[in-house]
Amino acid sequence: MTPPPLDPERHALLLDFDGTLVEFAPRPDHVRLRPGAAERLDALRRRLGGALALVSGRKVEALDRFTSPYRFNAIGVHGHEIRPAGEELRLRPTSPQLDVARRRLAAELGGGDRLRLEDKGSALVLHFREHPEEAERAAQLGRRAVDGLADLHAVPGNMIVELRERGVSKADAVALVAGWPGFAGRLPVFVGDDTTDEDGFRAAAAAGGFGIKVGPGPTAAPHRLPDVAAVHTWLADV
Ligand SMILES: [Mg+2]
Predict the structure, then answer these.
(1) What is the phi-psi region of residue 27: left when phi exceeds 0, alpha when psi lies from -120 to 50, beta otherwise?
(2) Distance from the CA of 119 to the center of ligand 1, in angstroms?
(3) What's the CA-to-centroid distance between 141 and ligand 1, angstroms?
(4) CA-closest candidate to residue 176, choices 90, 96, 238
(5) Which of the chain's termini has less CB crowding within 10 Å, N or C?
(6) Could you read off the pLDDT of 1-17 as tens digits, one per residue?
(7) Single pTM value for the model
(8) How many A from CA of 158 to the centre of ligand 1?
């Protein structure tokens, strides 16, 4: 179902980044916001009284790089990094078990491996977008790396397997931003494309708002937009 237009007086907007605001690229660093998109997001944030946040698996510093010169309210690494727009980054403490998983992966992955390991500090990501034939091996390595580590789980995503802490999810973002300037009393609208966004959709609904799923696939969200271009068109209508 096509989402209703945002009400700038009532709604708060939580936006995933990859697959929502930018199309995927062969390498994560190669994504780009379309021309003028950062400026339009900044204008939208002002129309919403500040109630706009980026909620991503990426690190906040990466989000800042892509949206430069603007700095948006941001929650990174699925909730491990917390940064209201005008403030310093805060890190949620990470389980020491992540170090065990890190060492296990390092021992398995040699130089020149077709799987690429990204260390986000508070999560570890195995990327296989450039080598889809490595999907099963990535899943196996992920499972082995967290074997016996109760704090962690290996979560499949879009051409990735991500090792991160249980109990930290995009649902936390909805509760976190509710206390930020401009968000109080507004209904959260959560927009995302991936399995990790489902937690955000459910949390938004529980808080009286709703979710918007980007792209195909099963979802808890009541609304859907077909692709990144449609997200930008919808945002432009606010
Ligand atoms: Mg995404």
Answers:
(1) beta
(2) 18
(3) 23
(4) 90
(5) N
(6) 789 999 999 999 999 99
(7) 0.92
(8) 8
Cis ω before 226 (30° cut-off from 0): no
Q: Rounded to a whole number, what is the distance in angstroms from the first to the last CA of the chain?
A: 18
CA 148 to ligand 1 center in whole angstroms: 29
Confidence of residue 157 (pLDDT cuts 50, 70, 90): confident
Which of 170-199 are b and which e, b meaning 16 or more Cβ less than 10 Å from the residue's Cβ? bbbbbebbeebebbeebbbbbbbbbebbbb
Measured between alpha carbons, how far is 15 from 182 in angstroms, rounded to an integer?
16
Q: pLDDT (tens digit, 9 = 90+) per residue, 101-153? A: 999 999 999 888 999 999 999 999 999 999 999 999 999 999 999 999 999 99
Res 195 pLDDT > 90? no
Which amino acid is residue 126, in one-letter code? L
- Contact in structure between 238 and 44 (CB atoms under 8 Å): yes
Q: 157 CA to middle of ligand 1, Å? A: 9
- Chain length of the chain: 238
> Which tokens go with 228?
């990144």
Strand partners, 163: 124, 154
Tokens of 170: 């995009």
Catalytic residue positions, numbered: 16
Distance 214 CA to ligand 1 centre (A): 9
Using alpha carbons, list the distances in angstroms from residue 98 to 53, 90, 106, 115, 125.
Answer: 27, 19, 12, 19, 12
